[in-house]
Specification:
about 350 residues; alpha/beta; Rossmann fold; six-stranded parallel β-sheet; EC 2.4.2.21; nicotinate-nucleotide-dimethylbenzimidazole phosphoribosyltransferase activity
């Protein structure tokens, strides 16, 4: 590994098992049958262990929105033209996108990054210009990134998390936007899980059966070109990924090292989660999984991550919208954990032994 990337394998902060056990004990003393609030209890216990406190909370929430173009879009793997990436950058920044509305509704701070939209927009209010290039290479013909570009993308994610922690964030959500990005995400999943493109490839922006078949063939071509037994997860990320996926990978690894809980969004961000855990297995302990995407390949990635997402709303938009949708439930779980009375406090009889 490049010595400048040695930070990727630095140890992650351990989960506070004592705090998690105390949270479990409190849940067992609350005025309800044990386990009767199901996964709401699980949310509070997991956050308590991650945060090392008997008063867990998801707030403040930080969303990192990574926007970039993908060279493979020229292969016709999306219904939308490449210029939509730039148009959506403006839309997200102006507050008109789904994630913008949701971030405002849940009171999250969202940082928006231009990592490499094909056409440089210049300064855009509310957008951090961290351009790595005018989009990635076309993975059906060349590697997505140079080694330098990969290093920069990972570092952008790392620095963004360090800034979030310094500013008091207690929950991280990464989002992405870039026409064609389900293709590199699927290619990465196929390479890491040794599964055929036909099994994992989905409609993305709404492709029909023929479009999905063409997309799977493009991915197969990319895998033939780049997926070699000697290539580890970092090299596969360089060859098959995207700036958005790489930045999210760096963000996840640094978050786990600093003890910042991670709420994993959908299909594309799960590919980054998969890469991150293959590079540094300790990252997995810091992940909560928001939802199951309608993209057919998501289930295989979740299975590989031993993940059981909290929501199944048939969403497939990306942009961190699935993660944002879970935040109100996380808040509710934490409020119940902290404010519900115990049997002793309420003077309620417990179950018979």
């Amino acid at each position: 590994m490049n010595p400048t990337l040695a930070w990727l394998q630095a140890p992650c902060r351990p989960i506070d098992q004592q705090a998690a056990a105390a949270a479990q004990a409190r849940q067992d003393r609350l005025t309800k049958p044990r386990g009767s609030l199901g996964r709401l209890e699980e949310m509070a216990i997991q956050l308590a262990g991650m945060q090392g406190t008997d008063r867990p909370t998801p707030d403040p929430v930080r969303i990192l929105q990574f926007i970039s173009d993908h060279g493979v879009a020229v292969e016709g793997v999306s219904l939308f033209p490449r210029e939509v990436t730039l148009q959506m950058l403006y839309n997200i920044a102006r507050g008109g996108a789904a994630v913008s509305v949701m971030a405002k509704a849940i009171g999250a701070v969202m940082e928006i990054f231009d990592l490499g939209v094909a056409t440089d927009p210049g300064p855009v209010p509310g957008v951090r210009s961290e351009r790595i290039g005018p989009g990635t290479g076309n993975i059906a013909r060349e590697p997505a990134m140079t080694e330098d570009q990969l290093e920069r993308a990972l570092a952008i994610g790392r620095t963004a998390v360090e800034r979030a922690v310094e500013e008091g964030a207690r929950l991280l959500i990464c989002g992405e936007m870039g026409i064609g990005n389900t293709t590199p995400a699927t290619a990465l999943a196929c390479a890491l899980l040794d599964l055929a493109p036909a099994r994992l490839t989905g409609p993305g922006t709404g492709l029909d059966v023929q479009g999905v078949a063409h997309k799977a063939q493009v991915i197969a071509t990319a895998l033939e070109l780049h997926a070699r037994p000697e290539h580890g997860p970092l090299e596969l990320l360089r060859r098959l990924g995207g700036f958005d996926i790489a930045a999210s990978t760096g963000a996840f690894i640094r978050a786990a090292q600093l003890g910042l809980p991670i709420l994993v969004d959908g299909f594309i961000i799960s590919s980054a989660a998969l890469v991150a855990t293959r590079i540094n297995p300790g990252v997995r302990d810091w992940m909560l999984f928001a939802h199951g995407s309608a993209e057919p390949g998501h289930g295989s990635m979740l299975e590989a991550l031993a993940a059981n997402p909290y929501l199944d709303l048939r969403m497939r938009l990306g942009e961190a919208t699935g993660g944002a949708a879970l935040v109100p439930l996380l808040r509710l779980a934490c409020v119940i954990h902290q404010e519900m009375a115990t049997f002793d406090e309420a003077g309620v009889s417990e179950a018979l032994a």
